[in-house]
Amino acid sequence: MMIHRVEHNRRRLPMQVRVCENGIERGRGMLLRRRPDMRTALLLRPCSAIHTFGMTWSMDVLFCDADGRIVKLVESLRPWRVARHPDACSVWELRAGAAALWGWRVGDRICPC
Questions:
Q1: Is the CATH code 2.60.120.1140 the one for domain 2-112?
Q2: Band of residue 11 on the pLDDT scale cut at 50, 70, 90
Q3: For every residue of the chain, which 3-state class applies, written as one string?
Q4: Please, which pLDDT band fits residue 32 given cuts at 50, 70 and 90?
Q5: What is the pLDDT of residues 64-97, one digit of tens each?
Q6: Exposure of 36 in the CB half-sphere (CA atoms within 13 A)
Q7: Where are the domains of the chain?
């Protein structure tokens, strides 16, 4: 797992993203992890669907295309749910409320840097 800073619309943010690049890390996602703070995200790539089975807390989920553009934003996805987007190449998982805190919207570009 690699840890990077985050860039939003070409502006560096004071947060970090943990990039899951192998199947085991992507399969685990946020499962069995402590709830992240508002300055931490998990990036699953390649990925176009996630589930919250076994989770005990809600999270924000961002689906991004190959260019890092947000194509779908799911705020406060509750435990025991599924979310997906057919055009997504990566998925960002964050603490519920983090997407609003950082001002992220569909069409914005986010990427690790």
A1: yes
A2: very high
A3: CEEEEEEECCEEEEEEEEEECCHHHHHHCCCCCCCCCCCEEEEECCCCEEECCCCCCCEEEEEECCCCEEEEEEEEECCCCEEECCCCCEEEEEECCHHHHHCCCCCCEEEEC
A4: low
A5: 999 999 999 999 999 999 999 999 999 999 999 9
A6: 23
A7: 2-112
